[in-house]
Every structure is written in C-alpha cells, then in structure tokens.
Amino acid sequence: MSEKVFVSEENEDVWKEWFKEARKQTLETLPEFIRHVMEDYRFDYGTAVHAIAACSVGAAWAGAEAEGITGFQAGCVMWDFVRYWNHSTNKCGMKLIDYDKMLYPQYEEKYEKVLSKDTWETIQNRAKELLAELEGNSGNNAPVHPDVIAHWKSIVDGKVPFGYTVSENLW
User: Fold this and answer.
1) Which of 19, 42, 83, 164: CA 20 to 30 A from 9?
2) pLDDT at res. 50
C-alpha cells in the first residue's frame, strides 16, 4: 500500500487537476476517479472540500454524459444540488448572481433589486408562518431577537425589505 500524498491549499495544481479530470468522467470511470481522489490523498481543511466537490462534479459529468442532457437540464442539476446539499430547509427560493455578466450592459435587469410577485408572496407567507410558530410555541423554541420579529411583522404588513421592489412583470 502506497503512502497518501498530502495536499494543502498551496498545492493548487493538484486539486485544480481533479476538476479537469472530473469533466472527463463516465459511469465506467467515475468509481476509480472517486477512489483515487478520496483514498490516494490526505487533505487539509480546504482541500477536503475541493476533493468532495471534484467527486461531485465528476458524478454530474458522468451522469450528463450517460444521459446527454441539455444546458437547461444542467442548470436544474445545479439547483437540485444546491437545494439538497446545503439549503434543504429553504422555503422562499434562491438566486445565484453571476457577476461576470455585469461586464455586459444587456444583463442590467438581472442586477435590479426586484422580486417577482410570487416570490414576494412566498416570503410574506413564510414570515406569517414563522410568527405563528412563535405564538404557538411560546417558550419551546430558541429565542428570536425582537428585531427579527419586528422585521417579520413588517414583511407581513407589506414592507418589502432591503430596498427591493416587487414587479408583476418579472419572469
């Protein structure tokens, strides 16, 4: 059995190579790729993250290659991963901002602080639910700061937070 190679953030050439190799994975090569990344290296705090991410990207590429998915479907894969990996309790939706697009004037509307009417209603309904949970479970939940409660109440009352506006003509 060979000694594991230690990879730190300073070994950027090593962990960036994992991502290049991840793009080449198929259903047949994926198990060995994952074994190689996870078993042939030792990691520091940061490179453990890169290793897991590279394995995940490899799995996505293998599945995409097997299924022949479109770019739109790839976007759905990304959102499912984000939702189920790190945001499984999200109730109001999410937005990803690609700041590279700020370099092109045709994308201006993507950076406006505008919510769709549906998203705004979802946020208001969630604030109502959270307030109702507080009232129904007094003393049984972790304390909620009074500023948070006031913020939820202002949302329920129709005050759109953080300088956003609501548009019925969005999306």
Assistant:
1) 83
2) 97
Q: DSSP string covering 24-62, please?
A: T--TTTHHHHHHHHHHSEEE-HHHHHHHHHHHHHHHHHH
Helix (H), strand (E) at residue 5: strand 5-7
Extents of the domains making up the chain: 5-86, 99-167
Residues of the chain with pLDDT under 50: none
Return the number of other C-beta atoms located less than 10 Å from residue 50's C-beta: 22
> What is the pLDDT at residue 58?
98
At 67, list the tokens.
């299924």
pLDDT at 137: 75
Cβ neighbours of residue 144 closer than 8 Å, sequence gap 6 or more: 134
- The answer to whether the beta carbons of residues 126 and 92 sit under 8 Å apart is yes
3-state secondary structure of 104: coil
Which residue, 123, 90, 96, is CA-closest to 110? 96
pLDDT by residue (tens digit) across 40-88? 999 999 999 999 999 999 999 999 999 999 999 999 999 999 999 999 9
CA-to-CA distance for 87 and 108, rounded, in angstroms? 27
